[in-house]
Design a protein that fits this description.
Elements lengths: L2 H20 L24 H69 L5 H6 L4 H72 L3 H24 L2 H4 L6 H12 L17 H11 L8 H7 L1 E3 L9 E4 L5 E7 L2 E4 L8 E4 L5 E6 L12
Antiparallel strand pairs: 1-6, 2-3, 2-6, 3-4, 4-5
Helix pairs in contact: 1-2, 1-4, 2-4, 2-5, 7-8
């Protein structure tokens, strides 16, 4: 949040108090290289133990991914609520100025009556001897009545608007504070899960870490091979839309950049930060988080997907990647990794969503 917005936020709080008184193509699924041979005398963990470590790490990083979605969602909400509070503050300031002018007009009308001897216009009219003056005066009295009635009505409406703006701003401030707490709680979850994963990895010897990396590749390759063996790739032949091509170009240009939770580029990304920014570069704004991308974007059958579509992974929609064709995806995997190309079937697929309508036949379902 910029300095200007923070200033308006501070003003908003002060104004609310005052008015309250008033009223995220290649392949990455080739056969793994042989595991390095440990030096003599080193006691390395058995393969089954390292596999247990791999599963534990996967669990920790997935928990961190879920918390990252929570963090991103809270951050997005907080930004929207901040904007709403600022807009309400502007309305309150304008309303106060309008109320001041209306009160000045009402005061002027009262002063004019006082200068007229305190007699209401009707009395002066009755005391007139000139018939024409009487008729002219009668018209002015009617106009005066309407003007006075209109002024009083406008004063009342303005006061009511100010009171409502104050209530709305107060409610938004409470939501903003709750959002900040949710964001802080999600950040603690992320940091805790990543710290545990890093501690687990750091306890391994260099050779064990290399073998662990190979186990991760083997697991991904096994899943990708099973996915390809299903024959699904023979059915996937969709062509990218113009916007889809732009999104793929952007996403693949980020290959090699580090993963960072909560990041939307340009130097680092998390999974949904990469896909949302890629589509923004193509002129299409989409939800910030993988879960909201799954909820809000159009669902497409896997066999109908085309480059640029987003593949949502795991039952909780905690990861997202962009399909780039030939059975491959580009994605920001997890902490400690960089944006890379992988097999589209290397993780459990929940479904596919399409950010744009594009051109040609569109057989997906809503």
């Amino acid at each position: 949040m910029g300095t200007g917005k923070r200033g308006l936020m501070a003003t908003a709080v002060a104004v609310v108090c005052a008015v309250t008184v008033l009223a995220a193509p290649g392949t990455a699924f080739a056969n793994p290289t042989p595991s390095p041979t440990p030096s003599a005398g080193q006691a390395l963990a058995p393969a089954k133990d390292l596999e247990a470590v791999r599963k534990k790490l996967d669990k920790l990083y997935r928990a961190a991914a879920r918390a990252t979605d929570e963090y991103n969602a809270a951050d997005e909400k907080a930004d929207k609520q901040s904007t709403q509070v600022v807009e309400l503050a502007k309305k309150i300031v304008k309303g106060q100025e309008k109320l001041r002018k209306l009160k000045d007009r009402a005061g002027a009308a009262a002063a004019a009556q006082y200068r007229g001897g305190g007699l209401p216009p009707e009395a002066h009219l009755v005391l007139s001897d000139d018939p024409q003056d009487f008729l002219d005066g009668a018209g002015r009295v009617r106009e005066g009545h309407h003007a006075t009635k209109g002024l009083l009505g406008e004063l009342t409406r303005t006061q009511e608007d100010l009171e409502q703006y104050a209530k709305d701003a107060s409610a938004q401030l409470k939501k903003l504070e709750a959002g900040r707490k949710a964001k802080a709680a999600a950040q603690k979850k992320i940091e805790k899960q990543i710290a545990q994963a890093e501690k687990l990895e750091s306890a391994l010897q260099k050779e064990e870490q290399e073998r662990l990396a190979e186990l991760e590749k083997e697991a991904a390759n096994k899943a990708q091979t099973a996915w390809l063996d299903s024959g699904i790739l023979e059915e996937i032949n969709g062509k990218a839309s113009e916007q889809g091509k732009k999104a793929v170009k952007y996403a693949t240009a980020q290959i090699g950049k580090p993963y960072q939770w909560g990041a939307e580029g340009p130097r680092t990304y998390d999974c949904s930060g990469l896909t949302s920014q890629a589509w923004m570069s193509a002129g299409r704004g989409i939800p910030r988080t993988s879960q909201e991308q799954w909820k809000q974007l159009r669902h497409i059958d896997v066999q109908d997907m085309r480059p640029g579509d987003l593949i949502i992974y795991f039952g909780d929609a905690s990861h997202v990647a962009m399909y780039i064709g030939d059975g491959a995806i580009v994605h920001a995997p997890r902490p400690g990794r960089t944006v890379t190309i992988a097999g589209a079937g290397s993780m459990p697929i929940l479904g596919v969503v399409r950010p744009d309508a594009g051109t040609g036949a569109d057989t997906g379902t809503n």
